[in-house]
Write a structure and sequence with these properties.
This protein is an alpha/beta fold. It has two domains: about 5-100 and about 280-340, Rossmann fold (3-Layer(aba) Sandwich); about 110-255, Rossmann fold (3-Layer(aba) Sandwich). It has ten helices and 15 strands. The chain has helices spanning about 5-10, 20-40, 40-50, 70-75, 105-120, 145-155, 175-180, 195-210, 225-230, 235-245; strands at about 65, 85-90, 100, 125-130, 145, 160-165, 190-195, 215-220, 250-255, 265, 275, 280-285, 295-305, 315-325, 335-340. Strands 1, 4, 6, 7, 8, 9, 10, 11, 12, 13, 14 and 15 form a twelve-stranded mixed sheet that branches. It has a three-stranded mixed sheet with strand order 3-2-5. Helix 8 (about 195-210) links the parallel strand 7 (about 190-195) and strand 8 (about 215-220). The radius of gyration is 20 Å and the shape is globular.
């Protein structure tokens, strides 16, 4: 079967059931694996070292995965330097940042995929947007940090983009109130990184004993759960405390890596994290075998987007559990799962774990 990414991207993002998606997704992963094998010497050496035979792969679970942290220590590109369009960097919390090299195909695919996925939750129209961050967070030059790239990327869904925090990360209540007054009664979009939202918005409002009338807002947030777990704040607690200070009850957590920007996994109305047509997840046990549904293990993420670098199949340092496929009450097709957090003793990393990173 030949693979056509444009055709896949033309579909509604959660429209393919397991039987329809499986052969298409495998064809895409196979095409990407062959492309990277032919164009990235380091990736070829890894595949050869594993004695991997591309023609021998039967299912997507058979294709080799790279540890996500490999991008911290090696420059992995499947294109000549002249074709590099953009360089993304992780926050480098541990002192070492991943560098992801994008070509034009990958950059365009990431933008389109993100647009399709997020529009499924926000609707097709651009909404007034409140960013729970400071204006200075996007005033960078050269390489884009994951935090900056996230804000810039999600801003395509917004209009009248307004920053809720000052550059010293203090909450700017008059600005928020002015934003609300401009859009009173209308649905609007709120975006932020999880730890920033909790520390500088939720807790700030609690300390000030303020309650803002933002119940028409839809919050999409992600990253930084490790630090929240350290202070005993889980997803239900986050949502409860957010609603108590703002009235916001439409909340979608998302899971994603800078190493696979665009292929975000978004939480539905029932609290389940979903794969889109363009992504897939495998849960692996401690022996790296595929874990059965309902069994906790390491999260392996797969994406049809990375063309300029071999980041299409990555083993993360996060734990999760596969919950089901094609039968979520929200009606979206595809696999859905839950995330438990970082693997014990894995290094802390992420776009908002070090929220002061620019």
């Amino acid at each position: 079967m030949t693979f056509d990414l444009a055709e896949m991207m033309s579909l509604a993002p959660y429209s393919l059931d397991a039987a329809t998606k499986a052969p298409l997704f495998r064809a895409g992963i196979d095409a990407l694996t062959r492309h990277h094998y032919q164009n990235c010497v380091a990736y070829k050496n890894i595949c050869d070292g594993l004695r991997f035979n591309i023609g021998g792969a039967v299912t997507i679970e058979d294709y080799p995965f790279l540890p996500a942290r490999l991008f911290k220590y090696h420059e992995l590109k499947s294109m000549p330097d002249a074709e590099i369009q953009r360089v993304l960097t992780s926050s480098g919390t541990s002192g070492k940042a991943s560098k992801i090299y994008l070509d034009a195909i990958t950059a365009a695919g990431q933008t389109k995929a993100l647009s399709k996925i997020v529009s499924d939750y926000l609707g097709p129209q651009r909404l007034p947007m409140l960013v729970i961050d400071s204006p200075g967070s996007v005033k960078t030059k050269g390489q884009l940090s994951a935090r900056t790239a996230g804000i810039v990327g999600y801003s395509i869904f917004g209009r009248d983009v307004t920053y809720a925090l000052r550059d010293d990360m203090s909450i700017d209540i008059p600005v928020i109130e002015d934003f609300y007054a401009r859009h009173v009664g209308a649905k609007f979009f709120i975006f932020g990184f999880t730890f920033v939202v909790f520390l500088h918005f939720i807790r700030a409002l609690e300390i000030l004993n303020e309650n803002l009338p933002l119940g028409k807002g839809i919050l999409i947030h992600g990253g930084g759960w490790k630090k929240l777990a350290d202070i005993a704040v889980d997803n239900p607690t986050f949502k409860r405390r957010l609603k108590s200070v703002s009235g916001i009850d439409r909340v979608h957590n998302y899971y994603g890596l800078v190493e696979q920007t665009g292929s975000v996994f978004v939480e539905c109305e029932y609290g389940h994290i979903h794969c889109s047509n363009l992504s897939d997840v495998v849960i692996r046990g401690s022996d790296l075998s595929v874990a059965p549904k309902g069994k906790k293990g390491m999260i392996q993420v797969m994406s049809l987007l990375p063309h300029g670098y071999p980041g299409h199949i990555l083993l993360t340092e996060d734990e999760g559990t596969m919950l089901g496929e094609d039968d979520c009450a929200c009606g979206r097709k595809g696999k859905y799962f839950t995330i438990h957090g970082r693997i014990s003793q894995a290094e802390v990393r992420g776009c908002s774990d070090a929220y002061v990173s620019r």
